[in-house]
Amino acid sequence: VTIRPTKKTVKWLNYNKINLGALQSALSMLYADIMPQKHFTKTILTLQTDFSSDSSGYFFGTNKIYICEKPDLLAKTRKQQVFVIFLHFLHEFRHWMQSEILGIKDSQLKYTQKDLERNSKRYWNNKYEVDARKFERRYIRKFMRYYVSFKNAGR
After folding, report:
1. Taking Cα atoms as reference points, which of 117, 50, 34 lies closest to residue 89?
2. Looking at residue 100, what is its pLDDT?
3. pLDDT of residue 120
4. Does 132 have pLDDT greater than 70?
5. Rounded mean pLDDT of the chain?
6. CB 91 within 8 A of CB 133
């Protein structure tokens, strides 16, 4: 998996002291762990920081993940901030997997943009959102271990 950040996102990653190479390698390792039998063609995911939103996102059928600039205003330490950024990233990556690997179409989501903006039950309880939240919680620690290992190896 190749992660191609936008120019502004490169600055944002640097500001948050997130190593792009380690992020990319950790994601590839995690994907290989989750789906070892699945042939994975080289994929380029665009990563874009959304400076005008308080939520991250993914549009089904694309290879672009949006991460909000400040996913958790209550995170006080850099470690807490990075942890929450990675939770958002894994959540949106799971939506990418749902779309591109599992073949889920956006028409199957059964909620509207208004439901999303209001954080309605229709959005919150949607099985694909529930799955993405479970995915981020299940894999965050493994992903963090991979990330730290790759980051330390690059020093």
Report:
1. 50
2. 92
3. 86
4. yes
5. 92
6. yes
Pairwise CA distance, residues 27 & 21, whole Å: 10
CA 51/CA 105 separation, integer angstroms: 27
3-state secondary structure of 125: coil
Q: Which residue has the higher pLDDT, 64 or 35?
A: 64
CB-based burial, 26-38: b 16+ in 10 Å, e otherwise: bbbbbbeeeeeee
Residue with tokens 């989501």: 109
Distances (CA, A) of 76 to 123, 133, 140, 144, 146: 29, 23, 19, 18, 23
Q: Which long-range contacts (CB under 8 A, 24 or more apart) does 80-85 make?
A: 81/16, 82/16, 82/17, 82/18, 83/140, 83/144, 85/16, 85/18
pLDDT of residue 95: 96
Q: How far apart are CA 32 and CA 134, in angstroms?
A: 18
